[in-house]
Design goal:
Length: about 280
């Protein structure tokens, strides 16, 4: 009996390990493929008789040379980082207090306002970029990274406000009331008590917002016209796809370099990120 239970337990562990290993391999495959392709010669990559997972010819740094010397990739990465940091700060400054205010509204009006705000996030960007282009033109921000700093919060703030509203709802009001009895103002209780308890939600907002900025294409293509002001999402395909010629090695190198920091952040804060997203989605 004991032997059967031991075998059953060992079999369960092997099955669990196999499932986890399969999912891990599935998740890691795009990164492995990008890394392999980055150092492959064009002839090796395009020859159908060569194994795509092995180097039939010696690895090369030519693809990285093309990416860094023949394009403005470093400038594009800097533009993306600049825009991303500013949009994250703007989103936090507006979405966090707005979500807290909606969460503390009594009655159904707070929840209804939160749902209405979330619905604005669902409006397709292809509909909004026409009126937003008019706003950008009036403010004389054409072909400037500041145009994207102005426009991106229009779709990050609604969703993040709804997310933070759901997160603040699960924090008991008694906590801040006790802090106010101890002498703190409402703002002081919010800053010193509520925000430290909301780290998971704040990290979710930061990662979600920066990821959207990194991958957004429509607005970046519409409002930016000069190569020096491109973001990574526009600059890379614009310069590394020339007609029907694809610089696959350099494309994969750019994708790998751009995606690894985000993947690292996801894995570093994965528990808090999932907790923040789950709480905001369920309780909101």
């Amino acid at each position: 009996m004991a032997t059967g239970q031991a075998l059953h337990g060992a079999g369960g562990k092997v099955a669990n390990f196999g499932i986890i290993a399969a999912f891990a391999a599935f998740a890691a495959f795009p990164f492995a493929w990008m890394l392999i392709t980055t150092f492959k010669r064009t002839g090796d990559l395009l020859d159908p008789n060569h194994n795509p997972f092995l180097y039939s010819q010696p690895p090369t740094l030519e693809n990285l040379r093309v990416l860094f010397n023949d394009t403005l990739f470093v400038r594009w990465a800097g533009n993306t980082m600049f825009i991303g940091v500013l949009v994250v700060l703007i989103t936090l400054l507006i979405a966090v207090p707005a979500g807290y205010s909606l969460a503390r509204l009594t009655g159904a009006i707070g929840e209804q306002l939160g749902v209405a705000m979330f619905l604005t996030y669902l409006v397709p960007p292809t509909i909004l970029f026409i009126p937003l282009s008019r706003v950008v033109s009036i403010l004389h921000l054409q072909d400037s990274p500041w145009a994207l700093v102005l426009v991106y919060p229009s779709f990050t703030i609604p969703f993040c406000t709804w997310l933070m509203m759901g997160f603040f709802k699960v924090i008991p009001k008694d906590v801040e009331e006790a802090a106010m009895i101890d002498g703190l103002s409402r703002f002081g209780a919010f800053v010193r008590v509520i925000l430290p308890m909301s780290i998971a939600g704040l990290l979710t907002v930061v990662i979600f917002t920066f990821t959207l900025v990194l991958q957004e294409f429509v607005y970046a293509l519409t409002f930016i016209s000069s190569a020096k002001n491109f973001t990574v999402s526009v600059g890379v395909p614009s310069f590394l796809v020339r007609g029907d010629v694809y610089f696959w090695g350099s494309l994969m190198a750019a994708c790998f370099i751009a995606s690894v920091p985000i993947a690292f952040l996801y894995n570093l804060f994965v528990d808090r990120f999932i907790a923040g997203f789950t709480v905001g989605a369920v309780k909101g």
